[in-house]
Amino acid sequence: MTKSAAKIRIQKLRKEIEHHRYLYHVQDRIEISDAALDSLKKELQDLEDQFPEFVIPDSPTQRVGGKPLPEFKKVRHTTPIRSLQDAFSEEDLQQWETRNQKLLPGERMQYFAELKLDGLAVILRYEDGVFVQGATRGNGEVGEDVTQNLRTIESIPLRIQLRKSDPRVIEVRGEVVLSRKRFDAINAELIAQGKTTYANPRNLAAGTIRQLDSAKVAERKLEAIVFDILTDVGQRTHEEAHRILVSWGFKTAAFWCERVLGISGAMKFLSHWEDRRVKLPYGIDGAVLVVNDLDQERRLGSVGKADRWMIAYKFAAEQATTVVSDIRVQVGRTGALTPVAIFKPVRVAGTTVSRATLHNADEIARLGLRIGDTVIVQKAGDIIPDIVKVLPNLRTGKERVFHMPKTCPVCGSPIAKNDGQVAHYCTNSHCFAKTREQFYHFVGKSAADIDGLGPKIIDQLLDSGLIADVADLYALKTGDLEPLERFAEKKAENLVQSIQERRVIPLERFLFGLGIRYVGAENALILAREISQRRIDRPLDLWNILREWSVPELQAIEGIGEKIAESIVAEIQTPRIANLLKKLDHVGVRLRTTKYRASGAFAGKTFVLTGTLETLSRDEARLRIVKEGGKVSGSVSGNTQYVVAGESPGSKYAKAKQLGVRILSEKEFLSMLKNNI
């Protein structure tokens, strides 16, 4: 980068960072995540390190702080709320421990680890057991009085039952949060009203607390989770403080904290929760590690603005900023064109990513994305990378507007876009890209599940001309494969055997494998249950049954909507499906139907699955439930009879407890399946 270009970029970054810092620290509003802001700050710091002549005293890298707004009464905290030291690796934690051990030589340290909720920090004051004041953290010394708004939060007790030894005045510290489920519901209402949605739960929680009308605050149904006692009530450890808070009637993060021994114990806690945080009911932006013993804590004291005895461990960022270098178009198995953003590799959620799907042209328009834009990329858990925001203030004027192609980038056929649909489609039913993706889909674990037949081998078979559709797989012989590169005799035999072992396919998997638009695994299961009432064991039987159904008849099946019904009726009449089913029938592929019970403990009951099951996959558990006559739903409601909870259950578990829905462990669920009682 030239010096002049660096100067312009530095100026734009400073302006952008200051804008977001003002929103966050002064107005309690967020337009981008902390991780994205950290990414911009790091870019600025790197440029200033490279060009120190451009560093100025008021650069965002040179100052900290914030001030409370005048709308609320200012409150000076009795106990200053200090900043947290940050750690990003096990090495950082080891260095932190080493520094503390030098101050307390020879003493053994235990730690109390707890997840760090992504909300708004508040301090609650009680006098004679009565809640009298609540304030925001502010700048750590002075916050804002938001007592009336905090009173609307039902998880904050208006009176606590003090012990005889407790002092008259008690202050506790907690976090005001909004559950992911409530956040989604509020945004859904805004979408229905044609209004702008909120960026994240933390943003909405902070904005709600700052509402001048407490009635509006009550409507949002915020929650408060308390994690520390600022007053000395005789507690000797942080672990004991948590127990006291529970006895006083506060909601705590009891399930997400524990006492650990040493940094090795802390790392086990952190590793356990880092992969599971996306399943929790609230947003998590890391974890806090504190010295459990309060006497050791007092002797360690503080340094600068931070306490020595506590440190925040930052999980791998789920968001980061990067620059889009290109937008390429891929063709899927249904012929849908999907634009994909190509960008400078960036590390997000522990992995390096360099591309993200843009879904369709409407999404590009919604984002206002141009090639060359600086964007925020997000990747949470196992979710594929996604661009969530464009930062237009960082544009240089060299960005380019993207247009969807008018012809297929693979076969050159015309592109069509039907009224009422967002996707563009290749009109060529024999498009090579569609064929390739259809193969990948059919042989996958949720469909035919052919072991050893991955994308590379499929590509090799297609390129060699040995196969043109999935039916050709079942006609392959060992001799056909041996001449191919990297195909020894044994490998060829194993692949042919794997294919032949999948000559009989469960009906629901076969339906899913056909690749009919909008027919996912659950819809296929619903259709299979309906079809299994008739005699069927061949692909031609299936074709004849599907041809008989009209859109209204399909819609009469519970769980099949209009869009799915129309797609089935339209595609079953296409030459692709008709010829494929005939050919699969001819090569000897057969269908296996499941016997579905109409009586028993599962009949007519609705189940919801949450968490990770050890002995069954989600698809297997879903099939077992439906086979026994039950139904599977994606959300908990008053119509739910059972919630099956595996390891690390999410918000569905909390909702089930709230509604009084019976919760089954995996062991109980398996026993119920075995006995069907």
Chart the SSEs and their pairings.
Elements: H1 3-25, H2 34-50, E1 74-76, E2 83-87, H3 90-103, E3 110-117, E4 120-127, E5 130-136, E6 142-144, H4 147-151, E7 169-177, H5 180-192, H6 201-209, H7 214-220, E8 223-229, H8 238-248, E9 257-261, H9 262-274, E10 284-291, H10 294-300, E11 302-303, E12 306-313, E13 319-331, E14 336-348, E15 351-357, H11 361-367, E16 370-371, E17 374-378, E18 386-390, E19 400-401, E20 415-416, E21 424-426, H12 432-443, H13 455-463, H14 478-481, H15 489-501, E22 504-506, H16 507-513, H17 521-531, H18 539-548, H19 551-555, H20 562-572, H21 575-586, E23 590-592, E24 606-610, H22 618-627, E25 631-633, E26 642-645, H23 651-659, E27 662-665, H24 666-675
Parallel strand pairs: 2-12, 22-23, 24-25, 24-26, 26-27
Antiparallel strand pairs: 1-6, 3-9, 3-10, 4-5, 4-7, 7-8, 10-12, 11-12, 13-14, 13-17, 14-15, 14-21, 16-19, 17-18, 20-21
